[in-house]
Protein backbone atom coordinates (compact mmCIF):
# COMPACT_ATOMS: atom_id res chain seq x y z
CA UNK A 1 0.00 0.00 0.00
CA UNK A 2 1.26 3.51 -0.81
CA UNK A 3 -0.22 6.55 0.89
CA UNK A 4 0.04 10.19 1.87
CA UNK A 5 -1.80 12.24 4.46
CA UNK A 6 -2.23 15.92 5.31
CA UNK A 7 -4.45 17.83 7.67
CA UNK A 8 -7.33 19.81 6.21
CA UNK A 9 -7.39 23.58 5.73
CA UNK A 10 -4.65 25.92 4.58
CA UNK A 11 -1.69 23.86 3.27
CA UNK A 12 1.04 26.00 4.88
CA UNK A 13 2.42 24.16 7.90
CA UNK A 14 0.70 20.89 7.11
CA UNK A 15 2.67 17.69 7.67
CA UNK A 16 2.56 15.27 4.74
CA UNK A 17 3.58 11.67 5.39
CA UNK A 18 4.70 9.35 2.62
CA UNK A 19 4.73 5.63 3.24
CA UNK A 20 5.39 2.90 0.69
CA UNK A 21 5.11 -0.74 1.70
CA UNK A 22 3.98 -2.52 -1.46
CA UNK A 23 6.32 -1.90 -4.35
CA UNK A 24 5.01 -2.16 -7.87
CA UNK A 25 7.87 -2.14 -10.37
CA UNK A 26 9.49 0.48 -12.58
CA UNK A 27 8.12 3.30 -14.71
CA UNK A 28 10.35 4.57 -17.50
CA UNK A 29 7.44 6.43 -19.09
CA UNK A 30 7.69 9.73 -17.18
CA UNK A 31 8.75 11.27 -13.86
CA UNK A 32 5.22 11.67 -12.47
CA UNK A 33 4.93 8.01 -11.54
CA UNK A 34 2.98 6.20 -8.86
CA UNK A 35 4.59 6.29 -5.39
CA UNK A 36 5.04 2.53 -5.42
CA UNK A 37 6.98 2.54 -8.68
CA UNK A 38 10.52 3.65 -9.40
CA UNK A 39 11.43 5.93 -12.31
CA UNK A 40 14.95 4.45 -12.23
CA UNK A 41 15.88 1.07 -10.80
CA UNK A 42 18.54 -1.52 -11.58
CA UNK A 43 18.80 -5.22 -10.75
CA UNK A 44 15.86 -5.23 -8.32
CA UNK A 45 12.78 -7.44 -8.36
CA UNK A 46 9.97 -8.79 -6.24
CA UNK A 47 11.03 -12.23 -5.03
CA UNK A 48 7.77 -14.01 -4.26
CA UNK A 49 9.57 -16.92 -2.60
CA UNK A 50 10.64 -14.60 0.22
CA UNK A 51 6.98 -13.89 1.12
CA UNK A 52 7.66 -10.17 1.17
CA UNK A 53 5.83 -7.24 -0.36
CA UNK A 54 9.14 -5.47 -0.82
CA UNK A 55 11.79 -5.56 -3.51
CA UNK A 56 15.31 -6.94 -3.37
CA UNK A 57 18.49 -7.47 -5.39
CA UNK A 58 18.28 -10.15 -8.04
CA UNK A 59 20.47 -13.30 -7.82
CA UNK A 60 23.82 -13.18 -9.58
CA UNK A 61 25.26 -15.41 -12.30
CA UNK A 62 27.18 -18.46 -11.09
CA UNK A 63 29.50 -20.32 -13.48
CA UNK A 64 28.48 -23.89 -14.35
CA UNK A 65 30.60 -24.89 -17.36
CA UNK A 66 32.93 -23.29 -19.88
CA UNK A 67 33.16 -24.02 -23.61
CA UNK A 68 35.35 -22.80 -26.46
CA UNK A 69 32.72 -21.14 -28.66
CA UNK A 70 29.38 -19.35 -28.68
CA UNK A 71 26.57 -21.37 -27.10
CA UNK A 72 23.43 -21.35 -29.25
CA UNK A 73 21.37 -23.90 -27.34
CA UNK A 74 21.18 -25.54 -23.90
CA UNK A 75 18.81 -28.45 -23.34
CA UNK A 76 18.20 -31.07 -20.64
CA UNK A 77 17.24 -34.61 -21.61
CA UNK A 78 16.53 -37.22 -18.92
CA UNK A 79 16.36 -40.87 -19.91
CA UNK A 80 17.14 -44.15 -18.09
CA UNK A 81 17.89 -42.21 -14.90
CA UNK A 82 20.64 -40.25 -16.65
CA UNK A 83 20.56 -36.50 -17.18
CA UNK A 84 22.00 -35.46 -20.54
CA UNK A 85 23.01 -31.81 -20.76
CA UNK A 86 22.88 -31.10 -24.49
CA UNK A 87 24.88 -28.04 -25.56
CA UNK A 88 24.89 -26.54 -29.06
CA UNK A 89 28.25 -24.77 -29.11
CA UNK A 90 29.52 -23.27 -32.36
CA UNK A 91 29.12 -25.94 -35.03
CA UNK A 92 29.19 -28.79 -32.52
CA UNK A 93 26.75 -30.58 -30.29
CA UNK A 94 27.85 -31.90 -26.89
CA UNK A 95 26.30 -34.29 -24.39
CA UNK A 96 27.71 -33.87 -20.88
CA UNK A 97 30.73 -32.15 -22.47
CA UNK A 98 31.39 -35.02 -24.92
CA UNK A 99 31.13 -34.10 -28.61
CA UNK A 100 28.39 -36.10 -30.33
CA UNK A 101 27.85 -34.19 -33.61
CA UNK A 102 29.50 -31.59 -35.81
CA UNK A 103 27.92 -29.49 -38.56
CA UNK A 104 25.43 -27.43 -36.55
CA UNK A 105 24.20 -24.05 -37.78
CA UNK A 106 25.46 -20.85 -36.14
CA UNK A 107 22.05 -19.70 -34.90
CA UNK A 108 19.91 -20.46 -31.85
CA UNK A 109 18.49 -23.96 -31.98
CA UNK A 110 15.23 -25.42 -30.69
CA UNK A 111 14.34 -28.86 -29.37
CA UNK A 112 11.54 -31.04 -28.07
CA UNK A 113 11.20 -34.53 -26.62
CA UNK A 114 8.74 -37.08 -28.00
CA UNK A 115 8.43 -40.70 -26.87
CA UNK A 116 11.71 -40.32 -24.93
CA UNK A 117 13.59 -39.25 -28.07
CA UNK A 118 15.33 -35.86 -28.14
CA UNK A 119 14.83 -33.85 -31.35
CA UNK A 120 16.74 -30.68 -32.26
CA UNK A 121 16.47 -28.15 -35.13
CA UNK A 122 18.82 -25.33 -36.10
CA UNK A 123 17.79 -24.17 -39.59
CA UNK A 124 20.24 -26.59 -41.17
CA UNK A 125 19.69 -29.96 -39.48
CA UNK A 126 16.81 -31.95 -38.06
CA UNK A 127 18.36 -34.50 -35.69
CA UNK A 128 17.20 -37.14 -33.22
CA UNK A 129 19.09 -38.54 -30.23
CA UNK A 130 18.26 -41.40 -27.87
CA UNK A 131 21.07 -40.85 -25.38
CA UNK A 132 23.46 -43.09 -27.29
CA UNK A 133 23.09 -42.49 -31.03
CA UNK A 134 22.51 -39.20 -32.80
CA UNK A 135 21.44 -39.09 -36.43
CA UNK A 136 19.47 -37.19 -39.00
CA UNK A 137 15.77 -37.80 -38.41
CA UNK A 138 14.90 -40.93 -40.36
CA UNK A 139 11.60 -40.27 -42.05
CA UNK A 140 8.72 -42.68 -41.56
CA UNK A 141 8.30 -44.65 -44.82
CA UNK A 142 4.82 -44.06 -46.23
CA UNK A 143 2.78 -46.57 -48.18
CA UNK A 144 1.84 -44.25 -51.02
CA UNK A 145 -0.49 -46.56 -52.98
CA UNK A 146 -2.30 -49.88 -52.92
CA UNK A 147 -3.62 -51.71 -55.99
CA UNK A 148 -3.13 -54.35 -58.64
CA UNK A 149 0.06 -55.30 -60.42
CA UNK A 150 -0.71 -52.84 -63.27
CA UNK A 151 -0.91 -49.96 -60.78
CA UNK A 152 -4.70 -49.67 -60.73
CA UNK A 153 -5.86 -48.90 -57.24
CA UNK A 154 -5.79 -45.90 -54.97
CA UNK A 155 -3.39 -43.55 -53.26
CA UNK A 156 -3.00 -44.31 -49.60
CA UNK A 157 -0.50 -42.13 -47.73
CA UNK A 158 1.20 -38.89 -48.76
CA UNK A 159 4.84 -38.58 -49.67
CA UNK A 160 7.00 -37.80 -46.63
CA UNK A 161 9.20 -34.71 -47.04
CA UNK A 162 11.76 -36.29 -44.72
CA UNK A 163 12.50 -39.36 -46.83
CA UNK A 164 12.54 -40.41 -50.47
CA UNK A 165 11.63 -43.97 -49.53
CA UNK A 166 8.15 -45.20 -50.44
CA UNK A 167 6.21 -48.44 -50.31
CA UNK A 168 3.66 -49.73 -52.81
CA UNK A 169 1.31 -52.60 -51.97
CA UNK A 170 0.27 -54.83 -54.86
CA UNK A 171 -1.67 -58.08 -55.40
CA UNK A 172 0.05 -61.06 -57.02
CA UNK A 173 -1.88 -63.41 -59.31
CA UNK A 174 0.65 -66.21 -59.95
CA UNK A 175 1.09 -65.12 -63.60
CA UNK A 176 2.11 -61.45 -63.78
CA UNK A 177 5.83 -60.62 -63.45
CA UNK A 178 5.78 -56.86 -64.25
CA UNK A 179 4.51 -54.64 -61.45
CA UNK A 180 3.88 -50.93 -62.02
CA UNK A 181 4.85 -48.43 -59.34
CA UNK A 182 2.88 -45.25 -58.64
CA UNK A 183 5.64 -43.00 -59.98
CA UNK A 184 8.30 -42.90 -62.66
CA UNK A 185 11.96 -41.84 -62.71
CA UNK A 186 12.80 -43.43 -59.39
CA UNK A 187 16.31 -43.32 -57.92
CA UNK A 188 18.70 -45.54 -59.85
CA UNK A 189 21.28 -45.74 -57.04
CA UNK A 190 18.92 -47.45 -54.63
CA UNK A 191 18.48 -51.23 -54.48
CA UNK A 192 14.76 -51.99 -54.74
CA UNK A 193 13.42 -54.80 -52.56
CA UNK A 194 10.10 -56.58 -52.27
CA UNK A 195 8.54 -58.65 -49.51
CA UNK A 196 6.15 -61.40 -50.63
CA UNK A 197 4.49 -63.56 -47.99
CA UNK A 198 7.34 -62.77 -45.57
CA UNK A 199 10.15 -63.52 -48.03
CA UNK A 200 12.46 -60.69 -49.20
CA UNK A 201 13.34 -60.35 -52.90
CA UNK A 202 16.25 -58.13 -54.03
CA UNK A 203 17.01 -56.16 -57.19
CA UNK A 204 19.73 -57.84 -59.24
CA UNK A 205 18.99 -61.23 -57.76
CA UNK A 206 15.26 -61.88 -57.76
CA UNK A 207 14.00 -58.94 -59.77
CA UNK A 208 15.00 -56.15 -62.17
CA UNK A 209 13.89 -52.50 -62.30
CA UNK A 210 13.12 -50.03 -65.09
CA UNK A 211 13.77 -46.82 -63.15
CA UNK A 212 12.49 -44.57 -65.96
CA UNK A 213 9.13 -46.29 -66.29
CA UNK A 214 8.85 -47.18 -62.62
CA UNK A 215 8.41 -50.91 -63.29
CA UNK A 216 9.58 -53.90 -61.28
CA UNK A 217 9.98 -57.24 -63.09
CA UNK A 218 10.19 -60.40 -61.01
CA UNK A 219 12.13 -63.45 -62.22
CA UNK A 220 9.15 -65.57 -61.18
CA UNK A 221 5.56 -64.31 -60.91
CA UNK A 222 4.50 -63.57 -57.31
CA UNK A 223 1.80 -65.99 -56.17
CA UNK A 224 -1.79 -65.11 -55.49
CA UNK A 225 -2.55 -64.08 -51.88
CA UNK A 226 -3.87 -66.67 -49.46
CA UNK A 227 -6.88 -64.40 -48.97
CA UNK A 228 -8.60 -62.92 -52.02
CA UNK A 229 -7.94 -59.22 -52.42
CA UNK A 230 -5.09 -59.20 -49.93
CA UNK A 231 -2.07 -57.08 -50.92
CA UNK A 232 0.70 -59.64 -50.56
CA UNK A 233 3.45 -57.84 -52.54
CA UNK A 234 5.19 -54.95 -50.76
CA UNK A 235 7.70 -53.07 -52.92
CA UNK A 236 10.19 -50.66 -51.32
CA UNK A 237 11.88 -48.08 -53.56
CA UNK A 238 13.19 -44.53 -53.39
CA UNK A 239 12.39 -41.38 -55.28
CA UNK A 240 14.23 -38.29 -54.09
CA UNK A 241 12.54 -35.00 -54.84
CA UNK A 242 15.05 -32.18 -54.85
CA UNK A 243 14.47 -29.72 -52.00
CA UNK A 244 11.82 -31.75 -50.19
CA UNK A 245 13.82 -32.45 -47.02
CA UNK A 246 15.22 -28.90 -47.02
CA UNK A 247 11.68 -27.59 -46.59
CA UNK A 248 11.93 -28.84 -43.00
CA UNK A 249 15.69 -28.76 -42.44
CA UNK A 250 15.85 -25.03 -43.21
CA UNK A 251 13.06 -24.14 -40.78
CA UNK A 252 14.25 -22.14 -37.78
CA UNK A 253 11.03 -22.26 -35.71
CA UNK A 254 9.01 -25.09 -34.26
CA UNK A 255 6.15 -25.46 -31.83
CA UNK A 256 3.92 -28.29 -30.63
CA UNK A 257 0.19 -28.00 -31.22
CA UNK A 258 -2.55 -30.65 -31.23
CA UNK A 259 0.05 -33.45 -30.85
CA UNK A 260 1.85 -32.38 -34.01
CA UNK A 261 5.06 -30.47 -34.65
CA UNK A 262 4.65 -27.27 -36.63
CA UNK A 263 7.64 -25.81 -38.48
CA UNK A 264 8.33 -22.41 -40.04
CA UNK A 265 11.11 -19.90 -40.65
CA UNK A 266 12.39 -21.39 -43.93
CA UNK A 267 13.80 -18.44 -45.88
CA UNK A 268 12.84 -20.16 -49.14
CA UNK A 269 9.21 -20.34 -47.96
CA UNK A 270 9.02 -17.29 -45.65
CA UNK A 271 5.22 -17.20 -45.24
CA UNK A 272 4.67 -20.97 -44.99
CA UNK A 273 4.16 -23.33 -42.07
CA UNK A 274 4.48 -27.13 -42.25
CA UNK A 275 3.32 -29.74 -39.77
CA UNK A 276 4.01 -33.36 -38.95
CA UNK A 277 1.51 -36.18 -38.84
CA UNK A 278 -0.33 -36.95 -35.61
CA UNK A 279 2.17 -38.01 -32.92
CA UNK A 280 4.88 -38.66 -35.51
CA UNK A 281 7.60 -35.99 -35.78
CA UNK A 282 9.33 -38.14 -38.42
CA UNK A 283 6.50 -37.78 -40.94
CA UNK A 284 5.72 -34.47 -42.68
CA UNK A 285 3.36 -34.91 -45.63
CA UNK A 286 4.20 -32.96 -48.78
CA UNK A 287 0.60 -31.69 -48.66
CA UNK A 288 0.59 -30.60 -45.00
CA UNK A 289 1.57 -26.96 -45.37
CA UNK A 290 -0.21 -23.61 -45.37
CA UNK A 291 0.69 -20.23 -46.78
CA UNK A 292 -0.07 -17.40 -44.38
CA UNK A 293 -1.60 -14.72 -46.59
CA UNK A 294 -0.90 -13.87 -50.20
CA UNK A 295 2.31 -11.90 -49.64
CA UNK A 296 5.74 -13.30 -48.80
CA UNK A 297 6.15 -11.36 -45.56
CA UNK A 298 7.97 -13.79 -43.25
CA UNK A 299 6.55 -15.56 -40.24
CA UNK A 300 8.17 -14.34 -37.00
CA UNK A 301 6.51 -16.53 -34.39
CA UNK A 302 4.11 -19.44 -33.84
CA UNK A 303 2.23 -19.62 -30.54
CA UNK A 304 -0.15 -22.31 -29.31
CA UNK A 305 -2.94 -21.02 -27.06
CA UNK A 306 -6.53 -19.77 -26.79
CA UNK A 307 -7.78 -22.84 -28.69
CA UNK A 308 -5.61 -22.18 -31.74
CA UNK A 309 -2.16 -22.01 -33.26
CA UNK A 310 -1.37 -18.31 -33.78
CA UNK A 311 0.99 -17.39 -36.60
CA UNK A 312 2.49 -13.90 -36.43
CA UNK A 313 4.10 -12.22 -39.42
CA UNK A 314 6.13 -9.10 -39.94
CA UNK A 315 4.22 -5.91 -40.75
CA UNK A 316 3.04 -5.75 -44.36
CA UNK A 317 1.33 -3.30 -46.67
CA UNK A 318 -1.61 -5.67 -46.95
CA UNK A 319 -2.16 -5.50 -43.16
CA UNK A 320 -2.55 -9.26 -43.02
CA UNK A 321 -0.15 -10.18 -40.25
CA UNK A 322 -1.89 -12.34 -37.62
CA UNK A 323 -3.41 -15.69 -38.58
CA UNK A 324 -4.77 -18.58 -36.55
CA UNK A 325 -5.29 -22.29 -37.21
CA UNK A 326 -7.93 -24.42 -35.57
CA UNK A 327 -8.24 -28.17 -36.30
CA UNK A 328 -11.31 -29.31 -38.22
CA UNK A 329 -12.25 -32.67 -39.70
CA UNK A 330 -12.39 -32.89 -43.50
CA UNK A 331 -14.25 -35.83 -45.08
CA UNK A 332 -11.44 -36.38 -47.60
CA UNK A 333 -8.23 -35.34 -45.85
CA UNK A 334 -9.08 -36.02 -42.21
CA UNK A 335 -7.91 -33.45 -39.68
CA UNK A 336 -6.72 -30.23 -41.31
CA UNK A 337 -5.69 -26.79 -40.07
CA UNK A 338 -6.99 -24.10 -42.40
CA UNK A 339 -5.48 -20.64 -42.09
CA UNK A 340 -7.78 -17.83 -40.96
CA UNK A 341 -6.87 -14.16 -40.95
CA UNK A 342 -7.57 -12.52 -37.59
CA UNK A 343 -8.94 -9.02 -37.09
CA UNK A 344 -5.50 -7.78 -35.95
CA UNK A 345 -3.30 -5.93 -38.43
CA UNK A 346 -0.33 -5.02 -36.22
CA UNK A 347 2.73 -7.05 -37.20
CA UNK A 348 5.36 -8.84 -35.11
CA UNK A 349 8.92 -7.57 -35.52
CA UNK A 350 10.66 -9.68 -32.88
CA UNK A 351 9.11 -12.70 -31.16
CA UNK A 352 6.08 -13.96 -29.25
CA UNK A 353 5.09 -16.43 -26.54
CA UNK A 354 2.17 -17.86 -24.58
CA UNK A 355 2.78 -16.20 -21.20
CA UNK A 356 0.44 -17.85 -18.70
CA UNK A 357 -2.34 -18.09 -21.32
CA UNK A 358 -1.70 -14.52 -22.47
CA UNK A 359 -0.76 -14.60 -26.17
CA UNK A 360 1.82 -11.81 -26.43
CA UNK A 361 4.18 -10.60 -29.13
CA UNK A 362 6.48 -7.66 -29.75
CA UNK A 363 5.60 -5.08 -32.36
CA UNK A 364 7.45 -1.89 -33.20
CA UNK A 365 5.47 -0.31 -30.32
CA UNK A 366 6.31 -2.84 -27.60
CA UNK A 367 4.52 -5.85 -26.12
CA UNK A 368 1.06 -6.55 -27.52
CA UNK A 369 -1.45 -9.17 -26.42
CA UNK A 370 -4.19 -10.88 -28.38
CA UNK A 371 -7.40 -10.50 -26.41
CA UNK A 372 -10.10 -12.98 -27.43
CA UNK A 373 -9.99 -16.42 -28.99
CA UNK A 374 -11.15 -17.92 -32.28
CA UNK A 375 -14.80 -17.74 -31.24
CA UNK A 376 -14.72 -13.97 -30.64
CA UNK A 377 -13.39 -10.88 -32.32
CA UNK A 378 -9.69 -10.53 -31.59
CA UNK A 379 -8.52 -7.24 -30.10
CA UNK A 380 -5.04 -5.94 -29.47
CA UNK A 381 -4.07 -4.90 -25.93
CA UNK A 382 -0.82 -3.18 -25.00
CA UNK A 383 1.20 -4.64 -22.12
CA UNK A 384 4.48 -2.70 -21.80
CA UNK A 385 3.78 1.02 -21.32
CA UNK A 386 6.01 1.16 -18.23
CA UNK A 387 9.17 0.17 -20.17
CA UNK A 388 8.51 1.15 -23.79
CA UNK A 389 10.59 4.31 -23.50
CA UNK A 390 13.72 2.25 -22.82
CA UNK A 391 12.86 -1.12 -24.37
CA UNK A 392 12.20 0.28 -27.85
CA UNK A 393 15.56 2.06 -27.86
CA UNK A 394 17.49 -1.22 -27.62
CA UNK A 395 19.54 -1.59 -30.81
CA UNK A 396 19.07 -5.37 -30.84
CA UNK A 397 15.34 -5.22 -30.05
CA UNK A 398 14.35 -7.44 -32.98
CA UNK A 399 16.69 -10.24 -31.83
CA UNK A 400 15.32 -10.54 -28.31
CA UNK A 401 14.96 -13.84 -26.46
CA UNK A 402 11.94 -14.73 -24.33
CA UNK A 403 12.03 -17.00 -21.30
CA UNK A 404 9.49 -17.75 -18.55
CA UNK A 405 10.83 -18.10 -15.03
CA UNK A 406 9.36 -17.72 -11.53
CA UNK A 407 6.15 -16.20 -12.89
CA UNK A 408 8.04 -13.60 -14.91
CA UNK A 409 8.47 -13.19 -18.63
CA UNK A 410 12.11 -12.32 -19.23
CA UNK A 411 12.71 -10.21 -22.33
CA UNK A 412 16.46 -10.56 -22.89
CA UNK A 413 18.34 -8.29 -25.28
CA UNK A 414 22.14 -8.71 -25.15
CA UNK A 415 22.85 -8.14 -21.41
CA UNK A 416 19.60 -6.29 -20.69
CA UNK A 417 16.62 -8.04 -19.08
CA UNK A 418 13.09 -6.62 -18.86
CA UNK A 419 10.85 -8.65 -16.55
CA UNK A 420 7.06 -8.65 -16.91
CA UNK A 421 5.42 -9.78 -13.68
CA UNK A 422 2.39 -12.04 -14.20
CA UNK A 423 1.23 -11.49 -10.60
CA UNK A 424 1.35 -7.68 -10.67
CA UNK A 425 -1.00 -6.05 -13.15
CA UNK A 426 -2.76 -2.72 -13.29
CA UNK A 427 -5.54 -1.15 -15.32
CA UNK A 428 -4.43 1.47 -17.83
CA UNK A 429 -6.22 1.71 -21.17
CA UNK A 430 -5.65 -2.06 -21.14
CA UNK A 431 -4.62 -4.42 -18.37
CA UNK A 432 -0.84 -4.11 -18.25
CA UNK A 433 2.05 -5.76 -16.45
CA UNK A 434 4.36 -4.27 -13.87
CA UNK A 435 8.00 -4.52 -14.96
CA UNK A 436 11.51 -4.68 -13.52
CA UNK A 437 14.84 -4.05 -15.19
CA UNK A 438 18.21 -5.81 -14.91
CA UNK A 439 21.63 -5.54 -16.48
CA UNK A 440 23.76 -8.69 -16.53
CA UNK A 441 27.54 -8.96 -16.70
CA UNK A 442 27.46 -10.93 -19.95
CA UNK A 443 25.62 -10.73 -23.28
CA UNK A 444 23.22 -13.67 -23.35
CA UNK A 445 23.09 -15.98 -26.38
CA UNK A 446 20.52 -18.55 -25.16
CA UNK A 447 18.61 -19.58 -22.05
CA UNK A 448 17.01 -22.60 -20.43
CA UNK A 449 15.03 -23.42 -17.30
CA UNK A 450 15.29 -26.75 -15.50
CA UNK A 451 13.84 -27.65 -12.09
CA UNK A 452 13.10 -23.99 -11.42
CA UNK A 453 16.69 -22.90 -12.11
CA UNK A 454 17.34 -20.26 -14.78
CA UNK A 455 20.39 -20.98 -16.95
CA UNK A 456 21.98 -18.20 -18.97
CA UNK A 457 24.61 -18.76 -21.65
CA UNK A 458 27.11 -16.08 -22.57
CA UNK A 459 30.84 -15.49 -23.01
CA UNK A 460 31.19 -19.14 -24.20
CA UNK A 461 29.97 -20.34 -20.79
CA UNK A 462 26.89 -21.62 -18.99
CA UNK A 463 25.76 -19.82 -15.84
CA UNK A 464 22.87 -20.30 -13.45
CA UNK A 465 21.13 -17.40 -11.72
CA UNK A 466 21.51 -18.70 -8.17
CA UNK A 467 24.25 -16.72 -6.41
CA UNK A 468 22.85 -14.67 -3.53
CA UNK A 469 26.03 -13.49 -1.78
CA UNK A 470 28.11 -11.94 -4.55
CA UNK A 471 28.94 -8.37 -5.47
CA UNK A 472 26.23 -6.83 -7.58
CA UNK A 473 25.27 -3.21 -8.09
CA UNK A 474 21.57 -2.59 -7.49
CA UNK A 475 19.44 0.40 -6.60
CA UNK A 476 15.91 1.72 -6.28
CA UNK A 477 14.99 5.37 -6.65
CA UNK A 478 11.72 6.73 -5.35
CA UNK A 479 9.38 9.03 -7.17
CA UNK A 480 10.63 12.60 -7.69
CA UNK A 481 7.91 13.62 -5.28
CA UNK A 482 6.16 16.97 -4.84
CA UNK A 483 4.24 15.60 -1.81
CA UNK A 484 0.94 16.49 -3.47
CA UNK A 485 1.61 20.25 -3.30
CA UNK A 486 3.57 21.14 -6.47
CA UNK A 487 3.06 24.90 -6.04
CA UNK A 488 4.38 25.03 -2.44
CA UNK A 489 7.82 24.83 -0.89
CA UNK A 490 8.48 21.92 1.46
CA UNK A 491 10.82 21.19 4.37
CA UNK A 492 11.65 17.70 5.61
CA UNK A 493 10.73 16.74 9.16
CA UNK A 494 13.80 16.84 11.41
CA UNK A 495 12.73 13.61 13.06
CA UNK A 496 13.73 11.93 9.81
CA UNK A 497 12.31 8.91 8.07
CA UNK A 498 12.38 5.16 8.56
CA UNK A 499 12.90 2.18 6.27
CA UNK A 500 12.53 -1.55 6.81
CA UNK A 501 15.53 -2.97 4.98
CA UNK A 502 17.99 -5.86 5.08
CA UNK A 503 21.51 -6.28 3.73
CA UNK A 504 25.03 -4.86 3.97
CA UNK A 505 26.36 -1.45 2.96
CA UNK A 506 23.01 0.11 2.12
CA UNK A 507 23.55 3.65 0.95
CA UNK A 508 20.78 6.23 1.06
CA UNK A 509 21.00 9.35 -1.08
CA UNK A 510 18.62 12.24 -1.63
CA UNK A 511 18.22 15.04 -4.10
CA UNK A 512 15.89 18.00 -4.37
CA UNK A 513 14.55 19.55 -7.54
CA UNK A 514 17.21 19.33 -10.28
CA UNK A 515 20.20 18.97 -7.96
CA UNK A 516 22.55 15.97 -7.80
CA UNK A 517 22.13 13.13 -5.31
CA UNK A 518 23.78 13.66 -1.91
CA UNK A 519 24.65 10.80 0.42
CA UNK A 520 22.68 10.75 3.68
CA UNK A 521 24.35 7.69 5.16
CA UNK A 522 25.55 4.11 4.69
CA UNK A 523 24.15 1.37 6.91
CA UNK A 524 25.91 -1.94 7.69
CA UNK A 525 24.44 -5.39 8.37
CA UNK A 526 20.85 -4.25 8.68
CA UNK A 527 18.01 -6.59 9.62
CA UNK A 528 15.13 -4.38 10.57
CA UNK A 529 14.40 -0.65 10.67
CA UNK A 530 16.81 2.18 10.10
CA UNK A 531 16.25 5.88 10.73
CA UNK A 532 17.72 8.44 8.37
CA UNK A 533 17.90 12.21 8.82
CA UNK A 534 17.17 14.35 5.77
CA UNK A 535 17.55 18.10 6.35
CA UNK A 536 16.31 19.88 3.26
CA UNK A 537 14.47 23.19 3.04
CA UNK A 538 12.51 25.13 0.44
CA UNK A 539 12.36 22.46 -2.21
CA UNK A 540 9.70 21.66 -4.76
CA UNK A 541 10.41 17.97 -5.33
CA UNK A 542 12.44 15.39 -3.43
CA UNK A 543 13.76 11.98 -4.47
CA UNK A 544 15.51 9.21 -2.53
CA UNK A 545 17.84 6.48 -3.74
CA UNK A 546 18.57 3.19 -1.95
CA UNK A 547 21.60 1.32 -3.29
CA UNK A 548 24.26 -1.24 -2.52
CA UNK A 549 27.03 -3.22 -4.19
CA UNK A 550 25.93 -6.34 -2.30
CA UNK A 551 22.43 -7.88 -2.14
CA UNK A 552 19.84 -5.90 -0.17
CA UNK A 553 16.11 -5.39 0.08
CA UNK A 554 13.49 -2.81 1.00
CA UNK A 555 10.16 -3.74 2.55
CA UNK A 556 8.96 -0.21 3.27
CA UNK A 557 10.04 3.38 3.77
CA UNK A 558 8.50 6.56 5.18
CA UNK A 559 9.27 10.26 4.92
CA UNK A 560 7.57 13.34 6.33
CA UNK A 561 7.64 16.94 5.13
CA UNK A 562 6.03 20.23 6.13
CA UNK A 563 4.32 22.37 3.53
CA UNK A 564 5.58 25.98 3.36
CA UNK A 565 4.67 29.01 1.32
CA UNK A 566 4.13 29.37 -2.40
CA UNK A 567 7.11 28.81 -4.68
CA UNK A 568 8.42 32.18 -5.87
CA UNK A 569 8.48 32.67 -9.61
Amino acid sequence: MSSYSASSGVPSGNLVTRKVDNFAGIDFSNSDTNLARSPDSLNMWKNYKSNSTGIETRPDMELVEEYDNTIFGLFFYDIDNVRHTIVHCGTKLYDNHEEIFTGMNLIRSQSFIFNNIFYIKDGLNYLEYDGETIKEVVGTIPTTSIGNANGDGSTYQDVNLLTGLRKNLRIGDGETTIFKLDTENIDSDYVVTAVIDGITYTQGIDLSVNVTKGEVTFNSPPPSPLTDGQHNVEILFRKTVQGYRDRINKCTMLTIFDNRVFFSGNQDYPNAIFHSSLEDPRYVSDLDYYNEGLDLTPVKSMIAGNNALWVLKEPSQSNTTVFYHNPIIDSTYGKIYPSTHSSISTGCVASGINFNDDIVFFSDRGMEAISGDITTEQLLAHRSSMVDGKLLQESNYKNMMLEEWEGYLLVIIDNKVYLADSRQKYQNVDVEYEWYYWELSKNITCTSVKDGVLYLCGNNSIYKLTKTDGEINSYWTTKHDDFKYPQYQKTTNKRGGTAEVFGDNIKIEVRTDNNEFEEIGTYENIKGYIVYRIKKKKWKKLQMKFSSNTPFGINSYTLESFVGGYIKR
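Residues 246-249 form the longest helix (4 residues). Confidence is low (pLDDT under 50) at residues 4-8.
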